[in-house]
Amino acid sequence: MNIKKLAGLISLLCMSPAWAIQPFTVKDIRVEGVQRTEAGTVFSYLPVKVGDTMNDTQAAEAVRALYATGFFKDVRLEVEQGVLIVLVRERPSIASIELNGIKDFPKEQIKDNMKYAGLAEARIFDKNALDKAVQDMKRQYVARGKYGVSVTTSVTELERNRVGIVFNVVEGEVSKIKQINLVGNRAFKEEELLDMMKLSTPDWMSWFSKSDQYSKQKLSADMEAMRSFYMDSGYLEFNIDSTQVSITPDKKDIYITINITEGEKYTVSKTGISGNTLIAREEIEKLIQVKPGDTFARKALTETSQKIGERLGQEGYAFANVNAIPELDKEKHQVAFNFVIDPGQRVYVRRINVAGNEKTRDEVIRREFRQVEGAWFDVDKIKKSKQRVDKLNFFAEVNMETPPVQGATDQMDVNITVEEKSTGNISVGAGFSDNEGMTLSAGVTQANLFGSGNHVSTQINTSKVNQIYSLSFTNPYFTDDGVSRGFDVYKRDTDSTDTAVSEYSSRTMGGGMRFGVPIGEDEAISYGLAFERTDLVLTELSSDRLVRYVRDFGTLNSNLVGTIGWGRDSRDSAIYTTEGTVQRAFAEIALPVLDMRYYKLNYQHQWYQPLSRDFTLLLNGEAGIAGGYAGKPMPFFKNFYAGGTGSVRGYDSNSLGPRDLNDQALGGTKRVIGNAELLMPVPGIKEKSVRLSGFFDAGAVYGSGDLPGSAGIRYSAGAAFTWLSPVGPIKFSYAVPLNKQSVDKLQKFQFTLGSMF
């Protein structure tokens, strides 16, 4: 038998004339050596067919093609009397992958990540894929600060051309930042610069904030924060020369060194405007935030360019460019700026496209838009539209793009893409306050009922003093103009026998309808009508005034309550507020058709003013007045109360104002509250979830002149600690009454868990 060897892998790749063969016609093809791979698979990858003429080039291509499949670790070609014989040796398959020593990650997550590297059970074993999986695993541990992690592997050959892979991992300890050094700072102390960095050496809150674990991304953010600080402080030529990060041989401690050049402090000598302004020059000059004589601040420069661009954007010039050209005088350390304005071409919005909303109806999103199709582009309306869609709280993410229309220089589209999130919620929780004891709560809420934007909720709240059960439904767009309509049904039980309030209990059931009418972007009025039925129960310790009321009007009272309110809310955040105002005015009137005749008026004004990057001043004022009319008294269970968390801290909850002969608070028909609070971060902790404050409180409740008790305004001062913890917000306060009287009931230390003031 005459067998002629055509090629091995190396001989074909390094073909020389000595190995050249005479071309021949392939009469047949035979595959030998396959175990798991089907012969048809080999034929499908082989670039040679029966009847083809075989030569050196085709033989080399055939070997390369079979190697490229990754199925084989050896490929040879032979020919016997015109029959092409393909001899292959398969790569082993992976029978099992075993992970030992892994605690920080779920093993299934690790195996899923290995699949992306090409390593998984039943796949062909590839040494390169194994190496890549090891490196990926190490990177995951390094991202968690474990630089000393060790990953070793062993590959065991098994029967039927298979292998078993074992990963042995020694996770090690988390590497901590031992020291951060700043080199080159002269104008600011090192402590001041380190305080603005997210990275820090270990402190008592590091276990929560992870600030002592090095991260390249965090370091980059810290460098940018430092750069912004210097540039906003006048140091125009500030530069970060280098950063060095080193780790000790035992992989436990990390040292960071930052080298900076501050340069000189610059002031602004003059400003100018050039280019096509389109709008009045005087109006643009009012938008310039940098003035001659000011210390240079990059933030003010950026804000100026942004404000001018936004002003032009209001006129439809979406692509306006505003460049601040500096002119430096290095001898005098002064800089002049010329704002060059290029408005570009005016554009209008062709279409508004909504995507990503699989459950929420298009109209629910579109009705929040202030920019309309066919109108000139307005940057303020675009921003407000996105903000309003965001505030729906139906979406995990809201992205808005304004791409130009292809082939048209004066048109653009507005594309809004949303990522929906679950808007249904089943909650069960508990809280504790020192005045109401243990509170259990449960509820079912759906904020986007059937994708319509309607809101429905049920709530159960129990405590020793108050028990509330309610069901509410709200349609935020009862009309196309944004008028909302809601319905409420509730049951409220009050038991004051264990509080400072005069002893009685009440059971109230009611239901009503309410409407909200927007009169501005952040302003609305509301009105409603509700029916209430209250059943009163007195005790032997109830005051004479309460006894007389029940004797004259009975224990069962029905009431038709009309309400009207006005509110304006311009806060930047409802949870972690740093600036803005809140104003609320509310009136409650018992209409003269059933048993009661009373009115209650209340006004509240809150003002948040940022004093610096970290400090915010909160001023709060409240005033309320109530009374009966048409010859009937004010129902005592509708009185105002004050004292404790939420009004005047340091005094027992609801203890201020008139009292009965048993020294129990009766409440009153007038109330004034004033609070001043300085909000600040906890020193050494950069987490926004933790906040300190110093406060001054004042307040009083007034009743009829013949009632004894805690008359006059009471003052207190103290400190509070707030933590938005994983189990709910926690607030501690310690207050010292400043003008306490002998009749006052004090409670200097107060706290709440599960509610926020």
Would you write up a description of this structure?
- By secondary structure, the chain is α+β, with helices and mostly antiparallel strands.
- The protein is 17% helix and 43% strand.
- It has 13 helices and 38 strands.
- The strands form 9 sheets. The chain has a 16-stranded antiparallel β-barrel with strand order 19-20-21-22-23-24-25-26-27-28-29-32-33-35-36-38.
- α4 (107-117) packs across α5 (127-143).
- The radius of gyration is 38 Å and the shape is extended.
- The protein starts with a strand and ends with a strand.
Topology (elements, then pairings):
Blueprint: E1 3-7, H1 9-13, E2 24-25, E3 28-32, H2 39-45, E4 53-54, H3 56-68, E5 72-80, E6 83-90, E7 93-100, H4 107-117, H5 127-143, E8 150-158, E9 162-170, E10 176-183, H6 190-195, H7 206-209, H8 216-232, E11 239-247, E12 253-261, E13 267-275, H9 281-287, H10 298-314, E14 321-329, E15 334-342, E16 348-355, H11 362-366, H12 379-391, E17 395-401, E18 411-420, E19 424-433, E20 437-446, E21 455-462, E22 466-475, E23 484-495, E24 504-520, E25 523-538, H13 544-553, E26 556-569, E27 580-590, E28 598-610, E29 616-628, E30 650-651, E31 657-658, E32 670-681, E33 690-702, E34 709-710, E35 714-725, E36 728-737, E37 746-747, E38 749-753
Parallel strand pairs: 3-6, 7-9, 10-12, 13-15, 16-18
Antiparallel strand pairs: 1-5, 2-4, 5-6, 8-9, 11-12, 14-15, 17-18, 19-20, 19-38, 20-21, 21-22, 22-23, 23-24, 24-25, 25-26, 26-27, 27-28, 28-29, 29-32, 30-37, 31-34, 32-33, 33-35, 35-36, 36-38
